[in-house]
Design goal:
The protein is mainly α and 173 residues long. It has one domain. Helix content is 46%, strand content 9%. It is flat.
């Protein structure tokens, strides 16, 4: 069941003049909501059909490109000096540029090390500046355990916003 909500602030649109117009507006919202649901369902069906039609071929081509790239890499690795002039890491053919490129630098534990061991070492060798600790308030626990009149002492208050809503009726009358 879809809910359509607006805030209670006045809008710069048309103004409803009486209760009959109000009821007609609500009914219009319901009819347009049904039309929206129908269009969204049709869109989802069409999108799913496109995925069903194209995903197998896309997956097959991706696997084939990966396989061929690995074959090319296996052939090129022992022949780097032949393929690339001194100091170069890439070459070209009529349809491709190929070669080697460096990825983004990243840290990983050295052989025999784990991240837990590294954290322990950083703690014991006064290198805590390299450790990240994120502290955030547990809002749910505060709301459950702190009495409303004591929230102000913590710099908090409970806020609830009232919103206007219209729900389409789904019952068959």
């Amino acid at each position: 069941m879809a809910k359509i909500r607006t805030t209670t602030k006045a809008t710069e649109q048309q103004v409803i003049k009486d209760q009959d117009e109000f009821c007609r507006t609500l009914d219009d919202i319901a009819r347009k909501g049904v039309e929206l649901d129908t269009l969204q369902a049709a869109k989802e069906t069409a999108m799913q059909q496109v995925l069903t039609d194209h995903d197998p071929k896309i997956s097959e081509l991706t696997r084939e490109i990966d396989r061929l790239t690995k074959m090319a890499e296996q052939w090129a690795s022992p022949r780097r000096d032949e393929l690339f002039s001194k100091g170069r890491k890439s070459g070209t053919t009529a349809l491709t540029t190929y070669g080697y490129r460096l990825g983004q630098p990243s840290l990983k534990p050295a052989k025999g090390w784990t991240w837990d061991k590294i954290v322990a070492l950083l703690k014991t060798t006064r290198r805590k500046a390299y450790l990240v600790t994120k502290v955030t308030p547990d809002k749910d626990a505060i709301r459950q355990h702190v009495k409303p009149h004591k929230l102000a002492k913590l710099g908090l208050e409970i806020k609830q916003v009232e919103t206007f809503y219209v729900e389409r009726s789904t019952r068959d009358d």
